Amino acid sequence: MAYIISTICDYRPRVIVKLIVVLLIAGARSEWWELGSNKKSLNRAADESIPCSEMRSLSRSQRTLCERYRDHIEFVSEGAKEGIDECQWQFRANRWNCTTAENKKRNVDLNTSTLFGKVIDIGSRETAFTYAISAAGVVHKIARACKEGKLEACGCSNQARPKGLGAMWEWGGCGDNTDYAYGFAREFIDARERDVQSPRSPESRAKKAMNIHNNEVGRLAVVRAARPTCKCHGVSGSCSLNTCWLQVPGFREIGEKLEEKHNNAIEVKVTKRGELRKRKRSSPDVGMMDLVYLDSSPDYCSPNPRTGVLGTKGRECNKDSFGKDGCGFLCCGRGYDSFTVEIVERCNCKFQWCCVVKCQKCKKRVLKHICR
Asked: Cis (ω within 30 of 0) for the bond into 244?
């Protein structure tokens, strides 16, 4: 116990007791998003001959849903992968960069086989973002799969014609089915939390409420971002037929919106009835689209095997930047080492008829800065 306290001495006092309890009771539970963690997992999810019972990252209820909607699991896996990739892109310059077990290159014993390690057990704003972006990825992929006719249970969107659409535009093109995708994602993703019906500790009940809320934020981020898209049809550009349909935007746009919500996340507490309440009087009321968190973020600067933090030693930084990717912030005041490396890149690319682009390989020396 004394060792645990020493490793979290940088936290605010009121968080210390809560984190001690969380770290002691939290097992390294697998999460459904591990379906998208690597190529092997993606292939297993797509192989319908593999029983759902062998997918250990799924909870009991999720395995039942997997058996009922077996053709959906491939797209759940792809959505999880999309969420993981976007998390790593949005946090590429942060002290915690959404590192997964597959790309942990530093020698830190996390004593866990889960995708993000034990750091995800802390109810921080980074955990809130991870849950939201993963849920968003599933809605995004399922909505597109419905439109493309890849799922038996759904087809094109049948949403009503939106108000304000010009009379010359015909509504009824095959749109992304966000209604079905939202409903399926809600049933499947939240099943993980519902399986733990009566958490024993207040901390576990609070984390359950936090996860369910942030899952919903991610799902709604995709649904609310969908918008009418129109196209002209006709011979020789006559545009005699104008068709519109519902379409979700590229996932980068979803990631940027959720990253902004991460920056403005609200610290909450959970009542005995399981309701979320803001902890600080100065904070805004908790809205449906607000990410919420329970605990302050840990110190991501130094390795901590108890919390799963890897630290920032060995990370590349930008010495000319005063932002999050700058060496001053990313290296946490420890300084950095600079050295020159030789890289090979494509250059002098030319289009050749028909129809390939051929490039040369050029060597270039670049200066890199690495945190100590």
From this structure: no
